[in-house]
Design a protein that fits this description.
about 325 residues, alpha/beta, Trna Endonuclease, Chain: A, domain 1, 2 domains, seven-stranded mixed sheet
């Protein structure tokens, strides 16, 4: 029987991060990919405790691959008016495009405030409100979890514009083309490696055949004498292996010079493909990641629309 543990939430965040600026903010900066996954952005941290006049924003960052400026304000308590005011001040001071407020718990009035900001500000700026929670099973390592409770309404549309891809179909097509290119280069690289191995083996067979042919002719003259074979077992075995390989080879047997020329040409192509493959893989991974982000946003948008419709239905009852 499988033993299952009980998942428990650690509600006292300060038992893990006693000080917001000294403990929590550095942790978020070092593990920003967890927050990035939650909001669906590639985030690069530029500075912590970044100056904004007489104040400091917890984390000043940017979106990887674009010029979007991001500020992240952390709060190990429930949301309050003070932090909301700071958030707007920091966004103005840093001319931020993306504003992320990470909190222990989001009060309803502050959810509404962030929603209002998203509805009444330029569509190029987006406000995210995220809750962080900690979980543990027994004595296991503590696991953090970021949950987005408020996000920009048209963020999916804006992200696709930023990446220069007008719609999801174009993004999917670009991702497929990049994947096909990488797959082709990978397959071609395997073909080259297989041919290089074949050339090495064939070259060795030609060498062995040439070296042992005189002994084989004498062996044949002696009407394949068993004692002679035992005395010259190794060269005669190599000769026979070469003949067997030549029979299996498709086409006329090339010369050593021809094989060497082909080998050098393939090595050069292999090196070129290796370089192209690295670039193609990076492009493929970026597009697949972007596609996944859009799919995530589309899913979230559908879920939110369903929740709204459900609430409207409940209200009408």
């Amino acid at each position: 029987m499988i033993n299952l543990g009980t998942l428990k939430e650690i509600t006292d965040l300060r038992s893990i991060w006693p000080h917001e600026a000294l403990n929590f903010t550095p942790w978020v900066a070092e593990n920003v990919e967890l927050l990035a996954d939650a909001v669906g952005l590639d985030i690069t941290v530029d500075e912590t405790e970044s100056s904004v006049g007489d104040f400091n924003v917890d984390i000043y960052a940017s979106e990887t691959g674009t010029d979007r400026k991001i500020i992240i304000e952390n709060q190990l308590e429930d949301t309050d008016h003070d932090h909301l005011g700071k958030l707007i001040t920091y966004a103005s001071g840093k001319d931020a495009d993306v504003v992320i407020w990470v909190v222990k718990h989001a009060r309803e009035e502050h959810k509404a405030a962030v929603e209002w900001l998203n509805n009444h500000t330029d569509d190029k700026i987006g406000f995210f409100l995220c809750e962080i929670k900690l979980f543990q099973i027994g004595d296991s390592d503590i696991a953090p979890s970021f949950t987005v409770v408020e996000r920009p309404n048209d963020w999916t549309k804006e992200i696709k514009k930023t990446k220069g891809l007008g719609d999801y179909e174009k993004l999917s097509e670009a991702a497929k083309e990049a994947t096909d290119k990488f797959d082709y280069l990978s397959a071609r690289q395997k073909e080259i490696e297989a041919r290089l191995a074949e050339i090495k083996a064939l070259r060795q067979h030609i060498f062995n055949y040439s070296k042992s042919r005189k002994i084989y002719m004498e062996y044949k003259t002696r009407k394949f004498d068993a004692n002679f074979f035992e005395e010259h077992r190794e060269p005669l075995t190599l000769y026979q292996a070469a003949k067997d390989a030549f029979k299996k080879y498709d086409g006329p047997i090339p010369t050593i010079r021809e094989l060497d020329a082909e080998f050098q040409k393939l090595v050069k192509e292999k090196n070129q493909i290796y370089s192209e493959s690295k670039i193609a893989r990076t492009e493929m991974m970026e597009l697949l990641s972007a596609k996944q982000n859009v799919e995530h946003f589309l899913g979230e948008q559908n879920r939110l629309e369903q929740d709204i419709q459900k609430k409207k239905g409940d209200t009408s009852l």
